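Hi L.,

You mentioned the student needs an example of a multi-chain input paired with its predicted structure. This one should do, with 227 residues in total across all chains.
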Amino acid sequence: MLVSKNSSTARRSKPLPRSFYERATAEVARDLLGRTLCRRLEDGTVLKGRIVETEAYEGVGDRACHAYGGLRTNRTEPLWGDGGHAYVYLIYGMYDCLNAVTREAGRPEAVLIRAAEPLQGHEFFRERLPHLKERDWMRGPGRLCRAMAITRALNKADLRGDELWIEKGDEPASVGVSVRIGVDYAGPCAKKALRFFVKGSPSVSGPKALNEPVKSRAPKRPARSRK
DNA sequence: CTCGCGATTCGCT
DNA sequence: GCGAATCGCGAGG
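Structure written out for the whole complex:
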């Protein structure tokens, strides 16, 4: 029996189900913290990172959202599809950003994955981003995609697929909340507390002032209600 | 077709 | 702290 060192043949933990994504977007964003983002390369190498920072984009009424005002174009098409798929777009002509589409088809909402802590694939990451320290490999949405080789080729990919998926992971000890980063143009929507991060993680991006807040209390992961 | 600009990052002052 | 890099997208002529 072939034993693979890079775990390409290792049994794979189950990806989060579609139903995970078909909920209120802010809930999904909060709930994605601590989960394991996984990427399988063509050669079988599997890369993993622990999600430590996310942002919710709440659809047609959210001025910061690409689908604001009902905008439906070739670019925003993935947002309009089923939850549990990837929306990968290019920003500033050089960086890809990864979103997890939420809600059901017809509700164009998503969660931007802003940062993660490297869990698996250190050799690959180091070779790809030699100028950065380990903690910075996935610190920021552009670097995260760079490190994990996530490009627009994965746009619309199923997040339960073979190339890209998200696993259960572990519950963070402490969660922070703040306004979203880089959306000052969004008027009143820019004030909404839709950014979630794992407090104390060295891989969280953004200004210090947002990450070491004074009074914020972390909302708890909503208990699975039984009706 | 032209124009303005962005859910960022990096390097320099 | 500031500005350049770099190009696809969306709006408008």
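You could point out the following to them. The mean pLDDT of chain A is 92. Residues 71, 73-75, 89-90, 92-94 of chain A lie near DNA strand C (CB under 10 Å from a C1').

Best wishes,
N.
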